[in-house]
Every structure is written in structure tokens, then in C-alpha cells.
Amino acid sequence: MVLRVYNTLTRQMEDFVPLHDMKVNMYVCGPTVYDHCHLGHARSYISFDVIRRYLGYRKYDVRYVSNITDVDDKIINRAREIGVDPFELSSRFALSFIEDMDRLNVVRPDIQPLVTDHIPEIIGMIEGLIDRGLAYPTQVGNVYYDLTSSLGRVGILSHQTVEGLLEGSGSRVEVEEDKNYRLDFVLWKSSSPDEPGWESPWGRGRPGWHIECSVMSRKYGSQQLDIHGGGVDLIFPHHEAEILQSEGYTGLQPFSKYWMHNGFLTIDQEKMSKSLGNFFTIKQVLEEFPPEVIRFFILNTHYRNTIDFSEKHLEEAGRAYERIANTIVNLKFALKEAPDKDSDHGLSEQVRQARDSFITSMDEDFNTREALANLFVFARRVNAIISANGPDKKSLRKVLDFFSEIDEVLGVFRKEMAVGEKIAEGPSDEEIEELIHQREKSRKAKDWARADAIRDELQDKGIFIEDGKEGVRWRRT
RNA sequence: GCCGAGGUGACAGAGUGGUUAAUGUGACCGCCUGCAGAGCGGUUUUCCGGGAGUUCGAAUCUUCCCCUCGGCACCA
């Protein structure tokens, strides 16, 4: 079985073969922190989180680097608007971002560098590009990448021609006076006294937008990456600029062997944007939906497709999620009463099949949607076996172990898998069991009024109980 | 204008040549149940944007057309 990935560079599915054995250097463009992160960021980082986790599952040795851009015009402008220091603003929203990712169960990158910690390296790389004749400083202290030096590589990722670019962008974009060529992009930008800046050979200034990723991917990853990822919107110009400057600097091609891009997230069929007023931050959505449901919702569509967010769709995802979550609850409950003697009832075979189909789906460009579909089939069979036959402890454990095994990749069933987790609030397990016991006595006496009253009481305390054939199961909601 | 993604049942969404087109949600019926919940079984009548072509065979390949969304030097 071979892992296949879609490569934006070739627009094809390719067998995944890292540059060096099983080692994978992976870089994903992080956010520019000028505001709370929105759902689009969640989509992107959850997608790459699962990709990264799956590579680990397939025994690749992954180094995952993802930056935080903490100096940028958008940050400066926003800081000006609300009258705070730009660095204060960026550090506040960088923390907000990390908090959001933690809540969404996104594994932290192995290295998460800040742009402002790498100014000397950035200046060094720009100097190198100037030395190689690929960039030029101007009178006012800007440095541009000289696109005419690499016309052959332009469009390698975006698949556009120089003519096409000139035509499309010319009328819309204000052309800086000091550029030699309209398509040149800025590496270093001179700062006015009231803007953040660092001393450089070209005067006080700050990095341009594309250079930081080239510097940090090389420093923490490798001169050549195996996977470079980000949203589709970054293909042009950001990733293309990275390719030009990185390859120009190192002389090595390709800068990254595979380029992977996640699709957009729309809201009620429209692109998220401030002007439409349909901009949802991760924090806003987390107020209404649990993080695992948001993750599940995102993984329920292939990462390259557009995904449409709406309250209705998330609620639907929540109900779908419950099916599998309930299966896990059913398993744990069944385990309590299960016999020790061998009575597998085909569960081991089901697990084996489920694992095979999980790998088959994920190997095909990380098809989480298909993987989840297979999981539903598996869950249904497991439920059927449990209620029909009463399998033994060992085989039930095997199923639970399988769920935790794949949850190392999906990261959605953490809450259900947690065993004996101490809950700070609400009644203790003993109190709950005692109330359930009381209720069982009432039920035996057919005192339904009292039984229902106890059930209501428990419900008020956040305990949901269900009567099953072999006893009462309960869980905290 | 250039470049890209897409159009599959009520909704969501897999499937890139081969038996009755996954899976989930919703709806309905049944089993189970004191009720509720969960679960299981079943149903949801021609679901593959349109035309032409290739093929023994097309959702899948070719071509033309229609429509939607996005990128084009701000963006995950």
C-alpha cells in the first residue's frame, strides 16, 4: 500500500516518496496575527494537523514547522486603528491563536517560530539574494526580488503566464514608484519612524510578506522540504514568491517536493468576509459547538474541497458524530458486564477490516470523508454484535483500542475515550450510582413517577441516563 | 481577460471505466422499551448539470455548451 498525495505543483496525484527515507520535513504557513483567527484558519490547520498525524501513523518521522507572522502591514494598520502598540497587538493575537488550536486539539508544531525572532536571518537571506543578482535595493530603502531574473520559474505553481499576470494585476494594483518591473515583489520594506522597524544595510525597515517563510522553513526544516502546505489562496503570490526566493538563494530545486493546499471555507455559500458580515471567529463558534464536532465537521469533507459552514451543517455533523460517540459509550458499557471467556463473535475480524479500510482511504490523499464513512459501517456492525451476542472483555477492548488508535490521527473522540476522568463539577460517581440505584428500586416497584423524578433530577445535574437491557448506563453531558 | 475548483437523492458528501452508485443527516415503518434515549432492521419511487462522441460497458475518458464559486501581488 502506497500513500498518494495530490501535488499542486504537478496537478496530479503522486506516490508519496520523501526526499530522505522516512524523514518528512513539513512546513505550513501560519497566520498573520492581527485579529482572532477565524474558521478558515481552523479548517486549514485541522486539515494539516490530520495530515501530519497520519504521516506519523504511517511511521514517517515528521518534523512539522509552522510559523506565526507577527509583523506585517495588517498588524500595523490594525494597531493604528485601535491605538495600541503593534507588538502588543500581535502577541495578544498570537496567544489567542495558540489557545484556539489547543482547544481544537491541533497538535502543536514541533517548531513554531515568530518572524520577529528571525530578523537577522531574514536580512542575511536578502543580502544573499542581492549578492546573487536576484534582488536589488532602491533609493528609498526597499529591496525587491528581481522577477526578470527567474522568468522561467514564474507560474510554476500558479500555472499562470507572465503575460497573464501583467494583464490581470496591472490595472488593479498600485505600482510602487521604485520598482524596476511591475511584477517584482518586496523583500524588505522601509519603515517610517512611527512604524516598527529594524536596522538593516538598507536603512530601518521590516520584512516583506513572503521572505519569512523561506527563512524559517530553511532554518528549522531543510533547504528542501518534502511538503509545503497552506490555503489555496496562498498559491499566488505567496508560495510562488517563496519558491523563487528560496530556489534562487539555495540553488536547489525544487524548494518543496510536494505542495498541498486546502480548499476554502464558505459561509452560507458565500466567501467569508468582513464586508458581508459573515466573519466567524473560532472563539465564536466554540461558544456554540464543542471542539470535536467542529473537527468532525471539517474532516467530513475532503481537505481540498470547498466546505460550506452554516449552523445547520454543524448541527448535522454533531448528530453524525454522536453515532460514533454513542458506539464508544456502548462499548464501554458492554465491557462492564462482559464475560471473561472467549466469545469474539467476529469482532476481531471487524477490527481488522476497519483498520484496512481506514488506511486505504487515508492513503488516497488523506480522504477523511471516506475514512469516516467506513467508520460508520464499522460502528453499526459493532453495535449489532454487542446487542445480539454479548462478546467477551478481550474483544471489546480490542475495538476500543482500535478507536483510540485511529483517534491518534483524527483527534475527535478524545472525550469519549477518556476513562475514569475526574470531573471537577457536579455529583461524584458514587452519588450518581446511588441515585440510579434508588431509581431502579422505584422502577421495580413500578413507581414510574418517582423513577422519572430521579431521572429528571439527574438530568438537571448534567447526567444523562439510559435504560438498557443489561442495566442503566449514564454519562455526563 | 488569465488561472483554478466544482455541478451526484430532501440536505450534506464519497466514488476517476465494470454486479442493485458509499456514508451521514432528515422523514417514514418495524423491533426493543413502563416512558424516554440509544441501538438494530427496513423504506425514501429513474440522485450522477445538458448535448455529442469513444467503449461490449461511462458519474468516471474526449469534446462542446450551460451554471456556481474562488485566485490574479491584502488573505488559511
UniProtKB/TrEMBL annotation:
Keyword ATP-binding present in the record's keywords: the answer is yes
Cleavable signal peptide = none
Motif ('KMSKS' region) positions are 271-275
Where is Zn(2+) annotated to bind?
Answer: C29, C213, H238, E242
Q: Which residues bind ATP?
A: K274
**Gene Ontology BP term (one):** cysteinyl-tRNA aminoacylation
Q: Which reaction does it catalyse?
A: tRNA(Cys) + L-cysteine + ATP = L-cysteinyl-tRNA(Cys) + AMP + diphosphate
Q: Cofactors per UniProt?
A: Zn(2+)
Locate the Cysteinyl-tRNA synthetase class Ia DALR domain: which residues?
A: 357-421
GO molecular function per UniProt: ATP binding; cysteine-tRNA ligase activity; zinc ion binding
Compartments where located: Cytoplasm
Single GO cellular component annotation?
cytoplasm
Extent of motif 'HIGH' region: 31-41
Q: Return the PANTHER family for the record.
A: CYSTEINE--TRNA LIGASE, CYTOPLASMIC, CYSTEINYL-TRNA SYNTHETASE
- Identify its protein family: Belongs to the class-I aminoacyl-tRNA synthetase family.
Protein name (record): Cysteine--tRNA ligase
Quick one: which gene encodes this?
cysS
